[in-house]
């Protein structure tokens, strides 16, 4: 949900001279409380990451008993694979367009929900409706949109009735359309979290800032530009980086709507890696791809941490 | 004054129009899901499309609820999600207490590791998990799913619970210690009961993550005895690609737990959720 580190307490009593034994005891107690967490993170995070890095430098891992050291061969194979490069490009388009749209929709909806012109009950009802897409699991969202975007489905029917298209488009199987179709569905499914965070941030902007701006004779748009946006900037930046990271993790939506097809047009880094491992049983190349994905994510995470520090 | 009033009315009309358009964008697909689940299968693609069906029937729900294999998916999802929620809360309460009430070497480092765990892509982990879970004999078991789900529920839970405990005054635990109680007693007798609102928000979110998890459930289970609801929906899509009404009924039934939890705990949930994000 959030990558924010809470401020860890520094309020406990400083160790007085002669009390070092009790300080040591306190530290041991603290480690005792932490031990289940540390154990789980070591077994399920540290060990697996070491394992996958190890796999990525070997050949024939998992499926054969005697694997051999392969150097950077798996990396060369992945980085020269046209499918991988297509996946890289598609992922870049998918995550950047999704995040931009999440921001725009989330901000627009949050501002409408924050209006002083409407009563609390009306706004509460709209807020629930707006959060709805976020409450459905991706498997359900995939099924809903496969129904809606079917060539004989309701979206095509409406577009045909309006005269925007001549015949039903098969959105998920048209190579020119599929990437935009999955991106659109992801936009629909993902904006509410942006909206919730921005709504809370909007409610935290001091009203006297707006009053002062109103006294200066500014109009609505000027106040948005010079009060709202600067106040929201920290939240927008951290949410945007988080959203880029989360969206790059997206697997289920692609897998259940297009499976990466047609003709690689919606292949993502996640589906490429999955196919290498569990369809081709090329666990070594899959591991190299998985490590590259991890490194790319760490670059994004680095920007996230830096944006946090700047505040 | 009249112009001010007119402008206000215009602005209000504009906002309402915007809200309704946005509401249709968000809500219509879900209305369509509901409406399709009570149609007969022949009506699903009827031309022109009807939002309100004439042949209302609950046959699709009966078909899902009368099918032992589908019910098993629900049972599996409930078992896994409840176990993940309880275990996550237990482990995170202990860790949150350590972070909130103690200072110890490597505190910042351990905290940074926990925070960064959330950025690790699941697809990177799923390959070694496959090897690891098979080696541990946990392939196709509840425990394999529960443990792997906790990797993604635990960091958030620890962060939120630490933040929540930090807001509770230290005098609370000190009072227990003055009476001769230990830190352990203070945690479970005083802090945990006081932190219930925060724990509910964390618990609901944990349940949601586990209930919705797809990639690990897909790769670390094999038999229908262990499959969870998201995989069940996908299987239904593969097997009966024409039974749209049943797919929609299964989708609704599969969404009810999360919807119910959310609506019931809405206020606390949104409050708890944004508390972390906004302080960012």
TrEMBL record, chain A:
It is found in: Cell membrane. GO terms for cellular component: plasma membrane. It holds the Pfam family BPD_transp_1. The keyword Nuclease does not apply. Gene3D superfamilies: MetI-like (1.10.3720.10). The chain crosses the membrane at residues 28-57, 92-113, 125-148, 177-202, 235-256, 283-305. It is a multi-pass membrane protein. Residues 88-304 form the ABC transmembrane type-1 domain. SUPFAM superfamilies: MetI-like. The keyword Transmembrane applies. One of its GO terms (biological process) is transmembrane transport. Keywords: Cell membrane, Membrane, Transmembrane, Transmembrane helix, Transport. It comes from the Bacteria. Signal peptide: none annotated. Belongs to the binding-protein-dependent transport system permease family. This is Sugar ABC transporter permease. It comes from Micromonospora deserti. The lineage of its organism: Bacteria, Bacillati, Actinomycetota, Actinomycetes, Micromonosporales.
From TrEMBL, chain B:
CDD domains: TM_PBP2 (cd06261). Keywords: Cell membrane, Membrane, Transmembrane, Transmembrane helix, Transport. One of its GO terms (biological process) is transmembrane transport. It is found in: Cell membrane. GO terms for cellular component: plasma membrane. SUPFAM superfamilies: MetI-like. It is a multi-pass membrane protein. Its main location: membrane. Residues 74-265 form the ABC transmembrane type-1 domain. The chain crosses the membrane at residues 12-34, 78-100, 112-136, 142-165, 186-208, 247-265. Belongs to the binding-protein-dependent transport system permease family. This is Sugar ABC transporter permease. It comes from Micromonospora deserti.
């Amino acid at each position: 949900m959030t990558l924010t580190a809470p401020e860890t307490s520094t309020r406990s009593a400083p160790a007085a001279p002669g009390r070092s034994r009790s300080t040591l005891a306190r530290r041991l107690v603290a480690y005792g409380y932490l031990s289940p967490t540390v154990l789980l993170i070591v077994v399920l995070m540290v060990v697996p990451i070491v394992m996958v890095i190890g796999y990525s430098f070997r050949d024939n891992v998992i499926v054969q008993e005697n694997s051999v050291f392969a150097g950077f061969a798996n990396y060369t194979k992945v980085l020269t694979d046209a499918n991988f490069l297509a996946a890289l490009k598609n992922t870049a388009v998918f995550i950047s367009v999704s995040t931009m749209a999440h921001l725009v929709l989330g901000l627009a909806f949050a501002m409408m929900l924050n209006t002083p012109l409407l009563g609390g009950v009306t706004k509460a009802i709209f807020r629930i409706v707006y959060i709805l897409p976020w409450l459905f699991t991706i498997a359900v969202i995939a099924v809903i949109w496969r129904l809606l975007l079917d060539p004989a489905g309701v979206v095509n029917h409406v577009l045909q009735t309006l005269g925007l298209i001549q015949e039903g488009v098969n959105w998920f199987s048209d190579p020119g359309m599929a990437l935009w179709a999955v991106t659109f569905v992801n936009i629909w499914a993902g904006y509410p979290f942006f909206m919730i965070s921005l709504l809370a941030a909007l409610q935290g902007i001091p009203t006297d800032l707006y009053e002062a701006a109103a006294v200066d004779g500014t109009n609505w748009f000027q106040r948005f530009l010079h009060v709202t946006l600067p106040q929201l900037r920290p939240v927008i930046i951290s949410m945007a980086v988080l959203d880029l990271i989360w969206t790059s993790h997206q697997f289920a939506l692609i897998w259940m709507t297009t499976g990466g097809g047609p003709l690689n047009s919606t292949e993502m880094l996640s589906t490429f890696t999955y196919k290498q491992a569990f369809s081709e049983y090329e666990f070594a190349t899959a591991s190299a791809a998985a490590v590259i994905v991890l490194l790319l994510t760490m670059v994004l995470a680095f920007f996230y941490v830096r944006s946090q520090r700047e505040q | 004054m009249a112009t001010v009033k007119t402008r206000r009315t215009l602005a209000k009309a504009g906002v309402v129009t915007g809200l309704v358009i946005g509401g249709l964008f968000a809500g219509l697909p879900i209305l369509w899901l509901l409406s399709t689940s009570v149609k007969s299968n022949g009506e699903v693609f009827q031309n022109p499309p009807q939002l309100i069906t004439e042949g209302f029937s609950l046959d699709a729900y009966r078909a899902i609820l009368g099918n032992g294999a589908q019910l098993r998916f629900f049972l599996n999802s409930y078992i896994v999600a409840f176990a993940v929620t309880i275990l996550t809360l237990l482990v995170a309460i202990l860790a949150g207490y350590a972070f909130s009430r103690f200072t110890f070497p490597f505190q910042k480092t351990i905290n940074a590791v926990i925070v960064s765990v959330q950025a690790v892509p699941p697809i990177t982990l799923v390959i070694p998990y496959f090897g690891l879970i098979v080696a541990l004999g946990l392939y196709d078991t509840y425990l394999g799913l529960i443990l792997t789900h906790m990797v993604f529920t635990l960091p958030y839970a620890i962060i939120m619970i630490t933040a929540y405990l930090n807001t509770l005054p230290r005098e609370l635990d000190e009072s227990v210690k003055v009476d001769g109680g230990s830190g352990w007693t203070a945690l479970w007798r005083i802090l945990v009961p006081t932190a219930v609102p925060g724990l509910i928000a964390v618990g609901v979110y944990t349940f949601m993550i586990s209930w919705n998890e797809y990639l690990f459930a897909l790769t670390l289970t094999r038999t229908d005895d262990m499959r969870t609801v998201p995989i069940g929906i996908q299987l239904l899509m593969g097997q009966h690609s024409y039974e749209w009404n049943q797919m929609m009924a299964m989708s609704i039934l599969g969404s009810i737990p999360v919807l119910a939890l959310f609506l019931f705990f809405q206020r606390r949930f949104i409050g708890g959720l944004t508390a972390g994000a906004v302080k960012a």
